[in-house]
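INTERNAL AUDIT FORM
Audit reference: QA-55
Scope: verify that the stored structure record matches its stored sequence.
Auditor: D.O.
Record contents follow.
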Amino acid sequence: MEPVIKVTNVSKDYQSHQVLKNIDLTVNNNEIYGLLGPSGAGKTTLVKMIAGIETPTNGSISVLHSSMPSLNIMSQIGFMAQSDALYGELSGRENLEFFSAIYGLKGQKQKERIHQVSELVNLSKFLQKPVNQYSGGMKRRLSLAAALLHEPKILILDEPTVGIDPVLRQSIWDELYKLSKSGTTILVTTHVMDEAEKCGQLGMLRDGKLIASGTPQELKNVTSSASIEDAFLYYGGVQHEN
């Protein structure tokens, strides 16, 4: 398989605090790769560096065979941040028009993509409403729609389903599977164990370190665990006490 994201010996310091320590990570083409870890594990910092928004203190990051940060590569990434970067006084449609213009979409193509992504996240009926009248879950869905507008080769989603009801969460995951099959590489962060099970590959982060990686089944098999949660607890400390 062809690696499209390669993180090599990456560390990140903020002043005297080390947030990430010697991370090595490879994500292959068309893969759904999950980063699992509690709040404060370093997931958001890592995906921001992969997206080119932040730079590592040490080590290197390559995306689509180019060293990051690279403006050309950043335009081929769809990034959905943990906090919704939306304009509350604008309607849902106006937000999507604004973001699609940034991506260079105009005319009929712009209209088509706005229609497609709003259908995908089940927001078509609410596009005329100002975003400051949206619920938290609706804002998450609009943020996902915005990240998908330009049909990116790589989709980076930071806690994409926080505050979204279980039925819609499943439909979003169904769509992520379709995107993956059609050629999109997806990197998703989560602290939810059942979402981690849905990923093709999984990296477990704790205290800024990558403590394990593999398919969810491999991680369970190696640790003789019945669940990803048990495997995470094993890698996170139990094995070091023996």
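Auditor finding: record pair retrieved intact. The chain has a mean pLDDT of 90.
Action required: none
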